[in-house]
């Protein structure tokens, strides 16, 4: 996939960390994102500080309307996570455009793969070229909470 899905008119995407509205991102994720419900602000701030961050902004007001975070070594691997579009801005292709922009931003680094996990947004990411794992049986996860270590 070579074409970045078009971003709806009136919005812009930026990877400038100074533009991230950390309070808004924390509110979205900790109150409305199934994977981050109850996440503490301090933990979210650390996640932002240690990641490559992307925001989508309303060009008229400057308000942030979406967010994505990438954990990466910028050499071999990246994990796209914490993708969130404000409910008022959904249905405009913002999530797909954001995923495509992240893909294109990372392409020059020659990464082997970008992974993500989603419960219900497969179609959003498929439009940006993501597909199910070819061999999910090769992947494993260590879940600290299951070990009583969280």
Structure in words:
This protein has 4 helices and 5 strands. The model has no long low-confidence stretch (mean pLDDT 94). Helix 1 (22-32) packs across helix 2. The longest helix has 13 residues, at 94-106. The protein is α+β, with helices and mostly antiparallel strands and 150 residues long. It has a 5-stranded mixed β-sheet with strand order 1-2-3-4-5. The protein has helices spanning 22-32, 41-49, 94-106, 122-126, and strands at residues 11-14, 52-58, 64-72, 77-85, 113-115.
Which properties best describe this structure?
4 helices; 5 strands; 25% helix; alpha+beta
Secondary structure blueprint with pairings:
Blueprint: E1 11-14, H1 22-32, H2 41-49, E2 52-58, E3 64-72, E4 77-85, H3 94-106, E5 113-115, H4 122-126
Parallel strand pairs: 4-5
Antiparallel strand pairs: 1-2, 2-3, 3-4
The Cα radius of gyration reads 15 Å
Residue share in helix: 25-40%
**Low confidence ranges:** none
Biggest sheet strand line-up: 1-2-3-4-5
Average of pLDDT: 94
| Total number of strands | 5
**What oligomeric state do these chains adopt?**
single chain
Succession of helices and strands: EHHEEEHEH
Strand content: 15-25%
* Structural class by SSE content: alpha+beta
The count of helical stretches stands at 4
Largest sheet: 5 strands, mixed
- Principal-axes shape call: globular
Distance between the termini: 39 Å
């Amino acid at each position: 996939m070579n074409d970045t899905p078009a971003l709806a008119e009136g919005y812009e995407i930026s990877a400038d960390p100074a533009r991230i509205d950390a309070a808004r991102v924390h509110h979205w994720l900790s109150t409305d994102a199934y994977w981050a419900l109850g996440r503490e602000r301090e933990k979210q701030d650390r996640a932002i500080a240690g990641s490559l961050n992307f925001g989508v902004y309303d060009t008229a007001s400057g308000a942030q309307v979406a967010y994505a975070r990438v954990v990466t070594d910028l050499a071999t691997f990246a994990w796209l996570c914490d993708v969130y579009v404000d409910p008022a801005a959904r249905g405009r292709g913002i999530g797909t455009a954001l995923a495509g922009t992240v893909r294109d931003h990372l392409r020059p680094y020659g990464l082997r793969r970008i992974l993500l996990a989603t419960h219900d947004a497969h179609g959003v990411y498929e439009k940006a070229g993501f597909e199910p794992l070819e061999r999910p049986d090769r992947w494993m996860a260590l879940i600290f909470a299951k070990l009583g270590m969280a």
